[in-house]
């Protein structure tokens, strides 16, 4: 069997990235041996030179997630040692909120994306694809598909409770986060709804987020889980999800759970546009208490969600077929 190296922010426990690691592992099961390339969760990420790491694999997959930063380059994702093997880049996004661009970073990225060893390139959204085409002179046409989180197999949902909603924050809660949580708790109490903080992470990332919640929101109960599957099940049981994490919204939409965004980004705006669900990208502060009660009762458009699932699964299939055929 071919040995495929998986390159991404894998192993730290961030929910979205672990979804994608699981997605690739499942996609290659039975046809290749797929493993993440990094053995360390800190620089230099490897216990041996990157050239030696590359030689352990027959081909490499990079993605998905926001792996392209215009102002910084990661030796994990865009290491020139990877260019000795056939590479598929799939499901990636550009961190467009980072306005600064460094010429040396763009030069390094251009060298990578224009290499003939790159066999295909897929972006998660149109804005990221446009940036890649404009700045990096890619060797292959840049395709666009739905986020790879739409391709992950979902566990069976748990029966939803009309009186429970989830709140997902990122890392250490800010003053704005604390203000929003206080408002949602007050609103929920007035409408007979129990609000629950969900730590949407596992491993080291989960521990960091728990410490942040204990420090900044010590009186607010929170929920954790040991696995990505249990976190998905937790989301499936909510009436609504208020999420600062993009992939919380992705999974909620797949379960038919409405969500609102606690963190405006281009990718959540693109997702709302793709699904035809504009409220998905809106912040609770944009609604009165009465309006909020209506917004949390809506349903994500089923047809659009199914189209996104089909798009992401097709992208995964094409990427796997491309790598298995590469020599």
From TrEMBL:
Keywords: Transferase. Signal peptide: none annotated. Transmembrane segments: none annotated. It comes from the Bacteria. It holds the Pfam family PS_pyruv_trans. The keyword Transferase applies. Residues 14-263 form the Polysaccharide pyruvyl transferase domain. InterPro entries: Polysacch_pyruvyl_Trfase. GO terms for molecular function: transferase activity. This is Polysaccharide pyruvyl transferase family protein. It comes from Kocuria coralli.
């Amino acid at each position: 069997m071919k040995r495929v190296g998986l390159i991404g922010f894998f192993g730290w426990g961030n929910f979205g990235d672990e979804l994608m690691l699981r997605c690739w592992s499942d996609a290659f099961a039975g046809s290749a041996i797929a493993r993440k390339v990094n053995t360390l969760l800190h620089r230099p990420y490897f216990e041996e030179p990157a050239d030696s790491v590359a030689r352990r694999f027959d081909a490499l997959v990079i993605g998905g997630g926001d792996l392209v930063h215009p102002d910084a380059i990661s030796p994990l994702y865009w290491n020139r040692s990877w260019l000795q093997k056939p590479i598929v880049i799939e499901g990636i996004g550009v961190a467009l909120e980072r306005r600064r661009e460094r010429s040396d970073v763009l030069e390094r990225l251009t060298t990578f994306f224009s290499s003939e060893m790159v066999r295909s390139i897929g972006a998660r959204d149109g804005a990221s694809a446009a940036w890649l085409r404009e700045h990096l002179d890619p060797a292959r046409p840049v395709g666009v598909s739905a986020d790879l989180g739409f391709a992950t197999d979902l566990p069976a949902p748990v029966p939803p409770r009309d009186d429970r909603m989830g709140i997902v924050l990122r890392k250490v809660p800010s003053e704005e986060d604390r203000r929003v949580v206080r408002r949602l708790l007050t609103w929920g109490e007035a409408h007979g709804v129990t609000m629950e903080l969900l730590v949407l992470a596992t491993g080291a990332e989960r521990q960091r987020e728990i410490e942040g919640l204990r420090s900044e929101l010590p009186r607010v109960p929170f929920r954790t889980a040991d696995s990505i599957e249990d976190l998905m099940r937790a989301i499936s049981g909510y009436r609504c999800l208020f999420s600062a994490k993009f992939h919380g919204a992705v999974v909620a939409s797949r379960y038919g759970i409405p969500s609102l965004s606690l963190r405006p980004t281009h990718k959540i705006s693109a997702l709302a546009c793709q699904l035809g669900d504009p409220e998905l990208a809106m912040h609770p502060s944009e609604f009165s208490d009465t309006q909020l009660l209506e917004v949390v009762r809506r349903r994500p458009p089923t047809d659009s969600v199914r189209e996104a699932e089909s798009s992401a699964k097709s992208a995964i299939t094409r990427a796997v077929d491309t790598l298995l055929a590469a020599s």
